[in-house]
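User: Structure please.
Assistant: Input sequence and predicted structure:
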Amino acid sequence: MILLDLLHIFGTNVRLYRERAGISQEKFAELCGLHRTYISDLERFQRNISIHNIEKIAHALELEAYTLFLIPEDLK
């Protein structure tokens, strides 16, 4: 099992679920009410995130927020 920090798990999951939904970063940022570069930074593990923004992202992905902190199956 590979141990990753929460920032990497979260960023990986955001990208994974966004891409599975077929949404560009720009469109996803719009759905979240966030800037595209902010989403890019999250997906590249370059930025910490507030709980408020975690909720925005989970809502846009139609997920429960906790699922964004689970290690993706392909990384186990």
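Residues 6-20 form the longest helix (15 residues).
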